[in-house]
Fold this protein.
Amino acid sequence: MIEELLPDSVVTVEAYGHDEAENTRLYPEEEAVVARAVPKRRREFTVVRSCARRAMEKLGVPPQPVLPGERGAPRWPAGLTGSMTHCDGYCAAALVRATDLASLGIDAEPDGPLPEGVLDAVSLPQERERLLRLADGHPAIHWDRLLFSAKESVYKAWFPLTQQWLDFSEADIDIRVDDAQTPQGSFRAELLVPGPVVGTRRLGHFDGRWTIGRALVATSVTVPHD
């Protein structure tokens, strides 16, 4: 799913289910991170790192530990940038050479409505108004979950460029439908705080893609160089 949302320069590896956790060994420094984690957290941590290491191999980079850095953002090998995501029954990693993209973010969520009260906490009034209009035309799509996923992808692309927090209220996301039959589409996130400087330009927005399938909502954001 994630692969279809990203340019050809990005390598993706996905895993459905968490069975491969039994056949994946963590590096000692990774083991230390999840030494006291509950089994579910440990399985997801393990499988998504297996995906990341297979993506490294595809790029010709020796597999190595992926440790969480500030605010949990993964620390990638020199010369690479990427993103990881996991939810019940699904893990994915996307990696690219840093010369090809400035940053990227991916997210996957279960294809279902957000818990009660969450949408109001993570969205702006104008975003909720647009979701109502989208729901009128495409009532089968869980637009609240899609918006949440898009915000997660935006943050994952934002943080490596800024090393700063981005609140849910600091990006205004406009979701667009390309093909209601698939369904899939795009979105634009207008940054409501000063954006990162990439090359010679300060970014005012991020662009992303979304798709739905296999009981999942998936989103991505890519930030090109100048």
Remarks:
- The mean pLDDT is 94.
- The two ends are 27 Å apart (CA to CA).
